[in-house]
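Project outcomes to date are best conveyed with an example. Our students and postdoctoral researchers have been running inverse folding experiments weekly, and each run begins with a structure described purely in tokens. The record below, which covers 155 residues, was selected by the lab manager from last quarter's runs and is presented without edits.
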């Protein structure tokens, strides 16, 4: 069974997505990419970005945020990771198969998504207010490994 579901809504930077894809492969997690993407997923572009393992990933492509949200199982465990959230990831109870949802690098998650799923927000704590956010691939790694620690999932 899949450890986690890592969801990138409208990712813009192929290197971040590549790094997150590698993380998904390493952690037995499914990667969900929600269009529009800021890059192409054809073989030429994937190879150029050094994603020669892409064919081994469990990837689901969604046409839009609306379509992705409609595709969620009825009682899916979800967390929207957002800098504007209240509770931290350390106050969040993660379960196997949890959907970890991240917004695009430049603007995060759309306000309508945050409003619709406001009960499922979580943030990575940061101690210096001058730091707006972390790099997307770093943020995904931090949250994924905290979730894996909680569910005691490992090789």
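After processing, the design step wrote out the following sequence:
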């Amino acid at each position: 069974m899949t450890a986690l579901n890592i969801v990138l809504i409208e990712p813009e930077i192929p290197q971040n997505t590549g790094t997150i894809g590698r993380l998904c492969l390493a952690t037995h997690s499914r990667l969900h990419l929600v269009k529009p993407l800021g890059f192409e997923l054809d073989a030429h572009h994937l190879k150029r970005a050094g994603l020669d393992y892409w064919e081994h990933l469990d990837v689901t492509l969604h046409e839009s945020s609306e379509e992705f949200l409609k595709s969620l199982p009825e009682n899916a465990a979800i967390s929207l990771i957002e800098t504007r959230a209240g509770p931290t990831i350390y106050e969040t109870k993660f379960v196997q198969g949890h959907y970890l949802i991240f917004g695009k690098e430049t603007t995060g998650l759309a306000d309508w998504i945050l409003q619709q799923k406001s009960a499922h927000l979580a943030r990575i704590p940061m101690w210096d207010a001058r730091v707006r956010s972390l790099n997307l691939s770093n943020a995904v790694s931090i949250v994924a490994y905290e979730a894996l620690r909680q569910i005691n999932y490992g090789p």
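The chain has one domain: 5-151. The helical segments are 14-27, 43-48, 65-71, 111-116, 136-151. The training component of this project remains on track.
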